[in-house]
Design goal:
Length: 1010
């Protein structure tokens, strides 16, 4: 019932009571005398009279029975004027309320709790029924701190907390309607002798060793609710320590699985089975109890969830085990708080511990802010001696009114990677190098109200504000425990902090074992190291750029950018700069290995000046920053040498086909012994620009962006045989891949476009080349093909595929500048010229850390090069692939492959692509499971333990993370219904499984709100 919820106590009312407590409630003797005298002349205005609607003045002993009743052996006395009112729904009931002194309570009712002080009198309630429904309202005595005073009732065996609300007009604390207890009192509980300090430990996390002595309990993750009502997973092993241990069971991953919970709450058999399983798990594992973290309960299933909580509590208590329940942050609207399907008052009666998730908003913890308002509300509903604040130790990202918790390491990725402003990875002696972090993050600024540092960044036309977690900020929030005399606090994310010592100090201060940690300064720290690790230069501050004066001595130097917050230091990025030998024969940086010879055999140039000794790029200027002349030169090609740069590290040649001048690294040529390099003319060339190479990239045509809409989901398919199934999963895009070859007609894809549109789907066409391991690409024919396809009206076109590996792009010619100048830029202009509404998506590189420069570039280096070449000007969305995950999408460690390269994990991969500055389109996102195929091929062994259930759950979690990141425009699930199984196990990625079922359809539908 609505009146059972104490929702009228607004912050302003509580403030007013606090103000009055220093005047009216704690008034002097003179004021008290005046009030007493006034009481002699005025009738008491009680809650009982207000609720009965009576306007008459009644004597204190007026019975509640009807005036027509003339024969009663015992007069009903339901109130003591100015002290207490009892209102019952049965008007014929006889109710008597008597006042007891504190000395008489133990003999008449039962001994009061030792940790509480009585405020006012204790009231004994007697009536003539076996049970009687009613409300009780007790006047707040003078000198009482209202916010710290709670209503308790004697149930015949013990004093129990009674939910209540504060009626400001009558200055009473009022209970909801309930089976009346035998006695009532207002009690002000004291702070607990031992404050509870809890932590949540999830898989792949390690708690700071120094924090363990402060902990009194741990929640070990994680058992996860499945659709069947069973719980799956293993409990995280706990460190050794003097603390109680709870098994955490949840329906929360990257997404809240409301569908599984809804089905579970509708199935009494599944509930009993789970209760038995949880009790057995706790007993057999030697745990102290269960932490039930079920979120997203619908308001229609409130009663069912409360019933389950009560049944689980009874079963655990029968084994002397505890029940903790994690309660979600309530939502506030117009001064009222709403806990949705979690009935806090009822759950609070059944559970032993309540973990209440506090607001993520760092600004909520100011004096009388949302956090305090929420606790004012919460402590009227649940026993504060059970209430445990659940706080997050990490960072918070806010966009609009939405808040996302993340680790500091994740938050720091927004600073981006290092880019050269001037200089490069190879410089001449004494050359200065300027570097800058490429992200959109603003310089750090101190937020005094939150006791932490913050920054902002722009993404997809939205402003994100990020607050970094730190020990001082956590310590400040922990102060609310003492202020409200709560049971204690629990910390989420303690297993992923970098400053373990600082957070340990915050917890030690919380239990009074040390002084609280002081606020720490934050800075970007720049250091330059030589090859021995010696520091040559350093600088710190808020600047996101750094200039190094350079070195005369040749060698390899490392420039590090780190983020320091107090004693905690986190790496942001580093680059290696090679200072070349001063001699003219100095070799260029071999890090860009597309120019590096792979053949050491000397070739005979014959009568020519030189012969190319390996397949090589030819550039329009003497340096790696210059663009590439299309086609390059093959090993064995004889050329005329016409000039050199001042250092003779680059030679100018005449291209054999048309005599066009080009530049090639001297080391890629075997020279005729008759050629004197020093006698060649030194040719001056203008500095490199983004548009250099292959005729240069044309300026982008003017076209409105078409990737600025809301997040959408799609799937890749060959046949499009299951559009209904795809729609049920929340998909409205379909991806087809057409492998283009010279001579193809655009009409080859017309039918697929029409088929998609006829079924109500948008269509993405991915158009790579037909040949694997190509030796060349006919750029002109490809561009014309795309122009024709765009005229047919597809919704999006992806320009090529995985062009950072030789499987898709000619070996030795892999180069993002070449891709931008020769393919992406002209394709963008051709497509927009034919149909400005087509979304242009850059080709997604293969996610890999392998990089030898000739056969592959790592996708991170490739994307940096694409950005440097101005690629963002020629796309609506940046294409990305993620298909090697074997951990939950929110993880960034623990992949079965045995290393933590970012490409194994979703969020770090996303950040690599988002750094380009455009919305990200995952044109392939999938997880591999061979569970229903008897295993996976050996080269996919990292996926051998991924189950079909995890495949479905992780896809949904990945989509949720992408949708809520603010960085992703589209996810295309790879794949819908492929059936190929073998060395390329495409069927193992399919959402339609071998037996025809589609578990992922349900999880995706839940995420997409279907």
């Amino acid at each position: 019932m609505e009146e059972e919820r104490p929702s009228e106590d607004t912050t302003s009312e509580l403030q007013e009571q606090s103000k009055r407590s220093s005047g009216i409630l704690i008034g002097g003797i003179a004021v008290a005398v005046l009030l007493i005298i006034a009481a002699l002349f005025l009738p008491p205005i009680s809650l009982g009279e207000r609720l009965r609607g009576s306007s008459e003045t009644t004597a204190a002993n007026t019975p509640t029975a009807s005036p027509t009743e003339t024969e009663t052996t015992v007069a009903s006395n339901p109130s003591i004027p100015g002290e207490v009112d009892v209102l019952v729904s049965d008007s014929s009931a006889v109710v008597n309320v008597t006042s007891l002194s504190e000395a008489d309570v133990a003999s008449s009712l039962g001994a009061l709790p030792t940790n509480a002080t009585v405020r006012g009198n204790v009231y004994k309630v007697e009536h003539d029924g076996a049970a009687l429904q009613g409300k009780v309202a007790i006047n707040v005595p003078a000198g009482t701190i209202v916010e710290m005073t709670d209503l308790y009732g004697w149930d015949g065996t013990r004093w129990r907390f009674v939910p209540s609300q504060i009626d400001v007009e009558t200055r009473q604390i009022v209970s909801p309607e309930h089976d009346l207890y035998q006695g009532f009192a207002l009690l002000e509980t004291t702070a607990p002798e031992t404050v509870a300090v809890a932590a949540e430990l999830l898989p792949q996390q390690t708690l700071p060793e120094a924090a363990l002595p402060s902990l009194t309990e741990l929640s070990a993750g994680t058992l996860t609710l499945a659709e069947s009502g069973e719980v799956h997973g293993e409990v995280t092993p706990l460190p050794t320590g003097e603390f109680a241990s709870m098994v955490r069971v949840t329906n929360v991953g990257a997404v809240v699985d409301q569908a599984a919970l809804s089905a579970f709450l509708s199935d009494s058999t599944a509930q009993m089975n789970q209760i038995n399983a949880l009790v057995n798990t706790a007993v057999s594992g030697g745990f102290s109890g269960i932490n039930l973290d079920y979120q997203g309960v619908s308001e229609g299933q409130t009663a069912a969830f409360t019933s389950f909580v009560n049944s689980l509590a009874d079963a655990l208590h029968a084994q002397n085990l505890l029940l903790a329940v994690t309660l979600a942050t309530p939502q506030q609207s117009s001064g009222r708080w709403n806990s949705a399907g979690q009935d806090w008052a009822a759950i609070g009666q059944a559970a032993d511990i309540l973990y209440v998730q506090m607001p993520l908003d760092p600004t909520a913890y100011s004096d009388n802010g949302d956090a305090m308002q929420m606790l004012n509300w919460a402590t009227r509903l649940v026993d504060r001696t059970k209430l445990t604040m659940l706080l997050d130790a990490g960072a918070v990202d806010r966009v609009g009114d939405a808040f996302l918790a993340l680790s500091n390491d994740e938050a720091l990725t927004n600073f981006g990677q290092l880019e050269f402003v001037s200089g490069s990875e190879e410089v001449e002696p004494g050359t200065a190098v300027e570097l800058a972090l490429s992200g959109e993050a603003s310089p750090l600024e101190w937020d005094g109200s939150s006791l932490t540092y913050r920054y902002s960044y722009q993404l997809s036309d939205q402003t994100h504000d990020v607050w970094l977690g730190n020990p001082a900020s956590l310590s400040g929030r922990l102060g609310l425990v003492e202020r409200y005399r709560l049971r204690g606090a629990a910390v989420r994310g303690l297993g992923s902090v970098t400053d373990g010592a600082g957070y340990a100090a915050a917890l030690a201060a919380f239990i009074g074992a040390s002084a609280p940690p002081e606020t720490s300064g934050a800075a970007i720290v720049w250091t330059v190291l030589d090859s021995t690790g010696s520091v040559l230069a350093s600088e710190s501050g808020s600047s996101l750029a750094f200039t190094w004066a350079g070195e005369e001595a040749p060698g390899s130097y490392t420039i590090n950018a780190e983020f320091a917050l107090g004693e905690a230091v986190a790496a942001l990025d580093s680059v290696t700069v090679t200072v070349a030998e001063a001699a003219a024969e100095a070799r260029p940086d071999t890090g860009t290995a597309v120019e590096t010879p792979t053949n050491t055999t000397t070739l005979d140039p014959g009568d020519a000046d030189a012969v190319v000794n390996t397949n090589a790029n030819v550039r329009v200027g003497p340096g790696l920053g210059y663009g590439i002349i299309t086609g390059g030169l093959n090993q064995g090609t004889r050329v005329q040498v016409t000039g050199r740069n001042a250092e003779s590290t680059w030679l100018q040649i005449a291209m054999p086909t048309d005599g066009q001048p080009g530049w090639i690294l001297a080391t890629l040529l075997d020279l005729n012994s008759n050629l004197s390099v020093s006698s060649l003319e030194v040719v001056e060339v203008d500095p490199a620009t983004v548009a250099d190479g292959g005729g240069g990239a044309p300026p982008p045509v003017s076209a409105p962006p078409v990737a600025s809409g809301s997040f959408e989901l799609g799937g890749q398919t060959h046949t499009f045989a299951n559009p209904t199934l795809m729609a049920s999963a929340g998909m409205n895009w379909v991806k087809f891949q057409h492998k283009w070859g010279p001579g193809d007609s655009p009409d080859a894809v017309a039918g697929r476009i029409q088929q998609a549109h006829a079924n109500g789907f948008k269509v993405l066409l991915s158009i790579p080349g037909a040949n694997t391991y190509p030796s060349s690409i006919d750029f002109t024919s490809y561009i014309e093909f795309l122009r024709g396809v765009a005229a047919l009206g597809p919704d999006a076109i992806e320009i090529w595929n995985e062009m950072n590996i030789d499987f898709e792009w000619p070996a030795g010619q892999i180069d993002p500048a070449s891709y931008v100048n020769n393919m992406l830029a002209p394709a963008y202009n051709a497509i927009k010229g034919a149909n400005a509404n087509v979304m242009v998506i850059s080709g997604a590189p293969a996610p890999t850390g392998f990089d030898n420069g000739t056969n592959a570039w790592s996708d991170s280096r490739y994307m940096q090069g694409l950005a440097a070449a101005g690629g963002a000007n020629y796309m609506d969305c940046v294409g990305a692939h993620y298909n090697a995950g074997a951990t939950a999408p929110g993880q960034s460690t623990g992949h079965p492959a045995g290393n933590d390269h970012y490409s194994w994990y979703l969020v770090p991969t996303l950040n690599v692509y988002a750094a380009v500055g455009k919305p990200v389109c995952f044109t392939e996102l999938g997880y591999l499971s061979g569970e229903d195929y008897g295993g996976v091929p050996s080269r996919f062994a990292w996926a051998s333990n991924t189950t079909v259930s995890q495949h479905a759950q992780w896809l949904a979690e990945a989509v949720s993370i992408a949708a809520n990141s603010g960085k992703v425009r589209m996810v295309i699930v790879f794949n819908v219904d492929f059936t190929t199984w073998g060395e390329d196990p495409q069927a193992g990625y399919a959402i339609m499984r071998k037996n025809g079922s589609c578990p992922a359809c349900q999880t995706l539908a839940q995420v997409m709100g279907r």
